[in-house]
Amino acid sequence: MNIELNIKNLQARTKTTEILHGINLTVKKGEVHAIMGPNGSGKSTLAQIILGHPKFEVTRGVLEFKKKNLLLLSPDQRANLGLFLAWQNPKTISGVKIAPFLKQALEAKRRSQKSKKAPLKVREYQKLLLQTMENLKMKPEFAERYLNEGFSGGEKKKSEILQMSLLKPDIAILDEIDSGLDVDALKEVCQSISLAKSENNFGLVLITHYPRILQYLKPGYVHILLNGKIVKSGNWKLAQKIEQQGYAAFR
Amino acid sequence: MPRLDKHNKADYIKKAPRGLSENLVRKISQEKKEPAWILKLRLAGLRSFYATPLPGWGPDLSALKFEEIIYYAAPDEIVEDNRSWKNVPKDIKKTFEALGIPEAEKKVLAGVGAQYESETVYHRLKNKWEKLGVIFEDMDTAVQKHKKLVQKYFMKCVAPNDHKFSALHAAVWSGGTFLYVPAGVKVQEPLQAYFRMNAKNMGQFEHTLIIIEENAQAHYIEGCSAPKYGTHSLHAGCVEIFVKPRARFRYSSVENWSADTYNLNTKRALVEKDARMEWVGGNMGSGVTMLYPSSILRGQNAHAEHLGLAYAGRGQIQDTGAKVFHAADNTTANIVMKSISKDGGDTVYRGLIEVASRAKNVVTNVKCDALILDKHSHSHTIPKMRVANPTAEVIHEASVGKVDEENVFYLQTRGLSAEEAASLIVNGFIEPIVKELPLEYAVEMNRLIEINMENSVG
């Protein structure tokens, strides 16, 4: 199967404002893309539109994944098809523990794939969860905490990576996974991402302001998003240029 | 003569008359062979009931037909030795089995007392607690066997003339639980009673009297469930708790009366020096509930914990809350209330915090959160505070909201459907209360909420 996220001339708006003015982007399984741009350029919006946030309306263009029209699918159907979004500011879901929640999410995915029996055996799941957490250097107690409640910035990001590692998407969009992390925490989170990627070879879309994270995750493609449009695409060198010159040169 | 429902195999209420009268009150007392002082209390209660108007606040009770209610009924089969499961009549056993009582009993319970209509048929307490002097009896038995103790405490915390429904309760009360824990005795396993109101139009007026002596400790669990019937039933129970110095007590209850029940219950604890009282309650059912567990903190450093959960669905009003009276220095209280309203249901948090002028350095925290699941439903917060001492620190936090769309979307990006996501969020919302309930009750609570959620989808 051709595992590919295909975006053509994508235009979208909120009730009041046009936000995306024709985005073109193709991401294949295994590839690493970086989308860079200053605050308010539409990076996070693009990510949320790909997953189908009800707040935005797509007015024009093509949004396909695995040759399926995502615009006809609900957010959960898109996720179960193999897309993952790591949120910049993950929501706090009070009273919902990570372990049972992730079991439910895994079962939802299995159900949608129909090939496997949906209910996971408790022991099988526990083993999987503990192994994944160990790989990510997370303590088992972490899974007993309420989802994102009282988490530090670093814990939130790790929790997102844990969810990604367990759900094994084909393409993961990481929205500013580097924000709010100090140098050491960033390195650790990037190692976790690399590990998950090496196991499943999924496609990665890194959304970021800063080139620093790209030193760890070496994108093959770098895109600059300004005012809802990709103004330049290139390779790794483009990121270096941004570091030296800022975004001003592309305006 | 009341016609029996065909579903109800046992002919429990064939002799029971409807309506209230002095004759009925005398008959109850006579049948129970009560001492004269109890009859006197009953008659005082009856007079007070007639003299007191319906409350001028809260939900409308005008549809309550006092003359159509059966105030007292006894099962035909009276079990002589009610401590053994073997002796419990088959029909009643079936009901208990449906409620999961035998399994629960085998596992963790120190004793089980269950009320079937007005007569207690099954009661047991593990030997080791009996040896320690713990008394766990039905009230009718306690009145006969522990006269002095009962007379010392009965309706001393909630007076018959406290309000209209405590007066009614005093007049027609029957059955209930008596728990006495002697000084220094710490009962580890929870003591449990399960009530079930099974006959159409049956009132349930059980009395629970609990005395936890100095430095003693216990946990009592009460659960209520009623099958659905088409006419109005009334539940006006009364719970009185005495927590002596340095004692700790937790009272947990799940009330799931059927949708046609008026649940007008009175629960109050007197908490002494250095003692701790914890109320954990869930209200799922009934048509109208008015229930405000109260803690009177009358000794220094006494503490009260009130955790509550209310669910109101179609046609339901859950008017619940907490009352704390700070009557001594350094008394503290923590109140956490959660409510869910759906399908036109109405939840009300009605609270009262009172700090006496003589009580210094009082600290009270009130937090009530309401979740409204659709635009037909309502929630109200009516907190009252009367603070007469300037050193008091009283904090009230309240939130009312819907299920956050962003949170639903977040969970959807993990593959859960919008319904699954909303259901998970609702369950998370009540988790802080549910986790304090014993497992079997927590499961029941979750199941009930799930059933109610399912009914509403689509």
From TrEMBL, chain A:
It comes from the Bacteria. Keywords: ATP-binding, Nucleotide-binding. The keyword Nucleotide-binding applies. Signal peptide: none annotated. PROSITE patterns: ABC_TRANSPORTER_2 (PS50893). One of its GO terms (molecular function) is ATP hydrolysis activity. SUPFAM superfamilies: P-loop containing nucleoside triphosphate hydrolases. Residues 5-251 form the ABC transporter domain. It holds the Pfam family ABC_tran. Belongs to the ABC transporter superfamily. Ycf16 family. This is Fe-S cluster assembly ATPase SufC.
Automatic annotation (TrEMBL), chain B:
Belongs to the iron-sulfur cluster assembly SufBD family. Residues 195-429 form the SUF system FeS cluster assembly SufBD core domain. GO terms for biological process: iron-sulfur cluster assembly. Residues 130-192 form the SUF system FeS cluster assembly SufBD N-terminal domain. It comes from Candidatus Kerfeldbacteria bacterium RIFOXYB2_FULL_38_14. This is Fe-S cluster assembly protein SufB. NCBIfam families: sufB (TIGR01980). It holds the Pfam family SufBD_N.
